[in-house]
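Below is a concrete protein record.
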Amino acid sequence: MPHDHPHHYHDDHGAHVHGGGDPGHGHGHVHHVPEGDRALGLAVAVNVLLTLAQIVGGIVSGSMALIADAVHNLSDAAALVIAFAARRIARRPADPGMSFGYARAEVVAALVNYTVLVVISLWLGFEAVMRLLDPPEVAGGIVMALAALALVIDLATAALTFRLAKDSTNIRAAFLHNLADAGSSVAVLVGGALIWSFGWAWADPAITLLISAWILWHALSEIGPVIRVLMLAAPGAAEAEAVRAAIVAEDGVAGVHHLHVWQLDEHRASLEAHLVLEEGAEGGNVVRRVKARIAERFGIAHVTFETETRASGCAGTGCRFEGA
């Protein structure tokens, strides 16, 4: 049976562009300017220096909360390095071996970063519980000074990545790392003040436990959408049944089956299906109208249909007509 496939090509900047559907909805993958890479590089350097300062301060002061914050800052630096590498890979144009391009590298990087956050939070929680059972002596003044420094640097690092985080789940993972760190630094600062003012040694592991819970909640709440993309789930606004209903509502369509909708990466979705035409319907016109409807309603421009009629039957195996 005839196939109606969108064409693939590359624009002058190496972006992978998908034809087909509504021409006004072409989804080239937009890449950030190199200034974004410089911002990430600066953020990495600052976080590494802060991590070293906090580890030394935590050892000198005896503060587990400060060391916990340092480990989290180190994870921030690692997250930024991973984010930077993924951005570079994602810019590569599509090739015969990777026909959809490399944009999913950023989704993989986000999954790695959130998984690391989950592991770190569990380790910190365990250490906090152990120290709550036997609170050590902590030098509150050193803790407060380094926590205040960390807060300033965390906010500065978050500012460096804020613009990039709007369009990338990969950078957003690193950005939210820093926001979580800023909250952690506030908590450590409060703990240091309690130790310095009242000698409450238990405050340090208690604050560490709160940091652990905060990181875990943050990571688990963000990892779900990333896993959905990697599991080829449909976009939230384009569940298969909603797409099916929109297709069969179009004049000239008798039904649709073998319908698959999935997220290619953070910014692009794809749809393929067997489109059953009414007898006598002009296939080309119907396909164009259906594609335009899908692009307008669901923002999906990468659409592939195999057109059929009831008389011709289904070209695939195990087919049955649905949605008539």
The first helix runs from residue 35 to 61.
